[in-house]
Amino acid sequence: MFDRFSIVPRWVIFMLDLCCSAVALFFASLLLNGFNYQAIHSTTFSRNLLILLGVNVMVFYRLQMYAGIVRYTSALDSVRILSSISLTVIILFLLNNILIAFNRAPLLTNSQLITYGLMSFLFLITYRSAVKLFFLYIKNMKVNRRQTIIYGAGDVGIATKRTLDHDHNTNNVVVGFIDDNTQKIGKVIDGVRIYDTEYFEQLILLGKVDELIISTHNIPVEKKTRIVDLCLEKNVKVLTMPPVHRLINGEVNASHIQKMRIEDLLEREAIKINNQSISRQLKGKRILVTGAAGSIGSEIARQLGHYAPQMVILNDQAETPLHELHLELLESQKSQVYHAYIGDIRDSERMESLFRTFKPHYVYHAAAYKHVPMMENHPVEAVRTNIMGTRLLARLAVQYGVEKFVMISTDKAVNPTNVMGASKRIAEIYVQTYFNHLLQKNTLLEGNNSQPHTLFITTRFGNVLGSNGSVIPRFQAQIEKGGPLTVTHPEITRFFMTIPEACQLVLEAGSMGKGGEIYVFDMGESVKIVELANKMIKLSGLIPNKDITIEYSGLRPGEKLYEELLNDLENTLPTHHHKIMIAKVREYDFEAVNKQIDSLVASARHQNEREIVFKMKEMVPEFKSNNSVYEELDRRKNMGT
Length: 641
Fold this sequence. Notes:
This protein is an alpha/beta fold and 641 residues long. Helices cover 48% and strands 15% of the residues. Strands 10-9-8-11-12-13-18-22-21 form a nine-stranded mixed β-sheet, sandwiched between helices. Helix 1 crosses helix 4 (110-140), helix 9 packs across helix 17 (499-512) and helix 12 (348-358) packs parallel to helix 14 (379-399). The protein is elongated and about 120 Å long. The N and C termini lie far apart (82 Å).
């Protein structure tokens, strides 16, 4: 009912403050006269009171004592009150000295001034605190209040607690903090106890927790996942606060408290990369990023800015996303030179103009078609972009003296079951055999110690969290619409990696590459997609298959249940980075590969999709179509027809 009350007018607060000052002067006089009321001279007291109130009117108005909302009294208000009272006492002390200089009696003795100051501060703070506690008590009387635990008793956690106390539109009551810092355990903040994180499960079992707010971002990933899983199992809602650097002026409000994202649970421990080595190679260089408007390309471009290259050339054919990325980078990294270049990697004239104009030292090739069902229906475009475009860029890289060409590949290139994966595997094969061809050519011309000027490196990883068109944004959109969530198969699993993590490893692999390697990344444990869907529903505060249903739509064309990072004929060699391995793959003859790609490109010109896919299967024998119209080609190939 108190929500209907408007904020008390400022003049009322002003008058209450003056009343407190008057009462403080009266009690100060009474105290100094041994609580003998008769000893207080009414005429003198009235004169002193009028002068005191006159000084207070000026001071309180000047220092805006009336400006704060009483029910939200904070430490800053206490400082303002102390400053006002101190200034009032100083002014009265100066008036006393002036009167004494003219042989007149002082208004108040020094004892009265000091006692008045203490009394005034006490009354002004007390009535404000009483109002604050009254409203907090009324808020806590709500029948439907949610008992809330805050993880992290640091500055953000404390600010979160006070924000919830002050916000009368919320029904949260903070009943405790949990923290990993043993020095804080058992202490009390604003009347709320700090518990050990190990005691959290006991609090849940006792029925004392309806909601958990995670206010710290220094929790080990495994521990955070375990706590969140426990909450979801016990129907405890999980919320989170953004990092402190994302808060405007470091201030917290209720809108900052958000639902926990599934990406936060799939993250792993932070990767340590050799920034000095990367910086030595990239500093002062001109770097081309193809597919720069995409999820991976844009993040690579952002991270490159930390290594002070001479220029980063952003290439993509998508005008609007490229324009938006360019504006973002110019704003966030003002000292770095970025140049947006619209162009299709399949356009030989446009790409040659790009290389001729900028003569890049490094190329990060992220441009590709990546959606499995789309490429299954459009194999012509898979060949033209993923294979033909890669070959064109690789040749131009050699022609214009690029130092390193880093190609971004995918785990779907391993034992491919779809056109997209096969096209990326063929691109891998071409890049690797092209480098070996250049190496052999240089060896014949210049001797055994000769190395090609352009080093070709391939990086291979799985799905990235939150990339355009990936499963998590799709699930989130389905949840917002009220479901259902569509999962292709109950047993389907995928590897996941965050976009920044993947791009860090790309830069690290690119810096360590000596040419011809295919680097594979440690993707951690594969994730069951149906479990991912269940967690996302629970994190939204809903119940799976009650509030939102999960439906199975069947495997899409070309899709397989399990992704792999290596095929059966490959194994790995370690590198100095424990998350990066080198795949040992079969060797191909460059001339044969080149002729096969020429044949593929010719078939693409004639729009002969079945012939394209058949030729891809010849190039990549392990390419076996799954749930696709092209399965018939595998039978035809096996029969040798």
